[in-house]
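Progress report, Aim 2. The chain analyzed during this reporting quarter is listed below.
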Amino acid sequence: MRKIKKLLVANRGEISLRVMRTAKEMGISTVAVYSEADRNSPHVAFADEAVLLGPAPSSQSYLRADKIIETALKMGVDAIHPGYGFLSENADFAKKVTEAGIIFVGPSPESIEVMGSKLAAKQAVARYGIPMVPGTEDAISDIPAAKRKASEIGYPILIKASAGGGGKGMRIVNQEEEFEEQMLRAISEAQSAFGDGAVFIEKYITSPRHIEIQVLGDQHGNVVYLFERECSVQRRHQKVIEEAPSAVVSPKMRKEMGEAAVQVAKACDYYGAGTVEFIVDENLDFYFLEMNTRLQVEHPVTEMITGKDLVKEQILIAEGYPLSFSQNDLKISGHSIEVRVYAEDPKNNFLPDIGKLRTYVRPQGPGIRVDDGFEEGMDIPIYYDPMIAKLIVHDENREKAIQRMIRAIDEYQITGIETTLDFCRFVLGHEAFASGDFDTKFVEKHFKPDMLKIQWSDTEKKLLAGLAVEIFEQSKSKLVRVGATESNSSPRTNWKNRLI
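Predicted structure tokens for the chain:
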């Protein structure tokens, strides 16, 4: 065992705060790193110590592996937690951290490398009999050969970047005539985004659900699964709403998926927190998609239904402790939903928005959690992911959790920028979501920007009705008071303020 006394979090914003809060509860001192754009961020103030990495662009700050390791050595830290994004799935970074004598709070560099390539991951798990989507076993660049393989698989097919993620380097091809153009685009985009133009081909599942399994493994060969997360509400192949458990996963299917996820983890001798992602078709048959070798953005919903602090477990595993619980000890308690609050305009194709958080008031009350990294008055920087916060709720069942989330969204006050809150409220109130009958094409099937019209709550409607009566009464009195001076603060001009 090697005790961690000082931890550097190589990240920013809400995940940096999230990790440091658990570290502080464990008696571990913390070091934050930051860019010039984040000088006044809450994670910098929260840490015991903070070090400037460099200018705002991530290539000059949060992606400076050498500078981060140099800082860690200078500050005398025992371990580095990478959070998610940035260097969290960079095998070379994990290796250099370890070589510097510092604990990397995550899996081994070898596990990251294997699972970092979708093709290598598929090859690693193939011998375990885990269901996989029909497709090529290796990267393919020869267009005529790729076209023949696509015909064998049957259209529609999906061209995917081997090193990809977030929808980059991904192209859906519905017919052979489109194939060559789409493949060249996929290769070009993959090369530009990841420095690796390798692509492969898979059968395209036409009505897919995205369901993932959280796993934890220790350095002694023990691996457990912490049930599933439903992540099918997406825009641009990126998640917006997640929930646990899924509305369509039966106990039998949960066990089968969970055991398959454990086998995936064992295929690469995995330890730490990881997520095995599956694609699920309309018949509820599931297929291995990929493994994310880090903490996920949506990990709070798993924490809410299991009562386990995943960051604490990550740190204990990194210290060398065996898991303190078995699979039989894990139970699902209630239902949890997370919405990602992005600085984006759903009425304008979810384009990112920047500006100042003129109003920023978090919702409160039982079963509500807000993971964020901003305060009122702060600017949203253009250099990083546009996520402002994660709003998470928990209740005893799915129906009550949906209602709690709607209440929390209505209570969340953000002005100065456009956000995805109204879109998330629309989804939660939609019949398809309420029934559980939805897939990754929810936006395409059910959403149009003009659907985000103002929806007044009962309280607001009563206030509006009262104001209408008041305006009417004042109008009558003005007819009598000919020549009277009109008030400078009429209800007509200030009614919006009275609703806020």
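The CA atoms of residues 72 and 393 lie 35 Å apart. The radius of gyration is 25 Å. These observations will guide the mutagenesis work planned for the next reporting period.
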